[in-house]
Amino acid sequence: MAHPTLHQLYAELQAERERTWAPEQLERNASQRRSLVARFDPAAYPQPGQVIAPFTLIDQDGKALTRDELVAHGPAVLVFFRFAGCPACNLALPHYNRHLWPALKAAGIPLVAVSAQNPVDRSIINRHGLDFPVAADPDYALGRALGITFLPDDQPAVKPGDNWIGATLGTNSYEIDQPAVLILNGDATVRRLIVSPDWMDRPESETVLDHLPEARSGDLAANAA
Fold this sequence. Notes:
alpha+beta, Glutaredoxin, 7-stranded mixed sheet, two-stranded antiparallel sheet, 9 strands, 37% helix
């Protein structure tokens, strides 16, 4: 039986929101995504062949994951997501766990999900049984180096104890990552950086695998399982 694509899952989520959300809430969400899409300039991000400077991520167990460790045996894939409670991220990461990770694992290619949320909120791992590491990007270091972070158009003042994105992320800031997929070569150069200014429109696993011929030999069998 065919599994739904990410596009189909997001269409279902949007349809549910249109049924259940107030019009002003729908418009706020859509307006921010439209604004990011309007500002999006693919040429502003690291291009294929550009070297990514050394970085250190911290995984769910507090272990350091460095750039050089990740690419020590060849390419590596980093999937940037917003935060553990983001509904769209809770569709993307389990989808990649099912359709992307098996082919990468078979080819020995690391996959790490990354967000600015520090420390890692393990709930998204436990909720979906994710089989790849989830890591924090302390102080937005890698996200800023890639240029994928942004500040929302609406940034209301907050008081101590308020439930807001800075408290959720543990950063005390409205700054947040745009979803993105970074494919690094073994020499730490960019093979492909796919940025999703609209967080309800992220690359399918097939799109990522198109840039990874090393994993192509086993992906059809893995996705059919």
